[in-house]
Amino acid sequence: MAVTVRLFAMLREQAGVATVELPHADAPTAGAAASCAAASVGIGDLLATMPVAIAVNRTYADGDTPLRDGDEVALIPPVSGGSGARIHTSITEERLSLDRLVELVRDPGAGAIVTFQGEPRNVEVLDYEAYVEMAQEHMQAILEDLCVAHGLIAAAAAHRIGPVPTGEPCVIVAVSAAHRPQAFDGAREAMDRIKADVPIWKREVDGDRAEWVVSDESGARS
Fold first, then answer.
1. Per-residue model confidence as pLDDT tens digits over 1-12
2. What does the CA dihedral 182, 184, 190, 195 come to, rounded to 10 degrees?
3. Stretch (H or E) spanning 122
4. Which long-range contacts (CB under 8 A, 24 or more apart) does 68-71 make?
5. Within 10 A of 181 (CB to CB), how many other CB atoms are there?
6. What CATH number matches the domain at 2-76, 3.40.50.2300, 3.40.190.10, 3.10.20.30, 2.40.400.10?
7. Sign of torsion over alpha carbons 114, 168, 161, 103
8. Cα 177 from chain centroid?
9. pTM for the complete prediction?
């Protein structure tokens, strides 16, 4: 079997094909698949000049993501409209990875990457609930707005739902920009707006005590 690499927009146009089939042995990771496909269809120079995200089986991934026979890798150039910045959002029950988020915003044109990681404090567990579809849309809109306002190259945010014990991240943000002032301002505002505006609620669980926490920053959410 093979790994399929899909190309879109200007990548597809320059390559002259929409898909590239690679032996799994030549594409053990998403990054290797991207490099091999680019070399085989002559788009290596184009890839080097623009921020291109990678998705594996329709989920954004980093270059180290391992591949299996039959996997589909997509090379995603900047989308039309907006700032052209790469944006990634996630609401998940899985443990969050700040390293993965950093890889999603890393870019040759970025002189600064700023991250934030929030964790439970003074409590055994924070239990999060979300209106997932609306929360995802709001997080996306917030990051799109901030990429324009602060000139960010890329922005990513992930929020966990369900029980999060002390010592594990409940929310993470990473942004990249050409210079550190834009990156610091963008990351700070992203976290402030996610906390205030995105419909995600938390309950403190400590032994037999379980209590919903109401935020002072918004009357609409906890």
1. 699 999 988 889
2. -160
3. none
4. 68/24, 69/1, 69/2, 69/3, 69/24, 70/1, 70/2, 70/3, 71/3, 71/4
5. 12
6. 3.10.20.30
7. positive
8. 15
9. 0.63
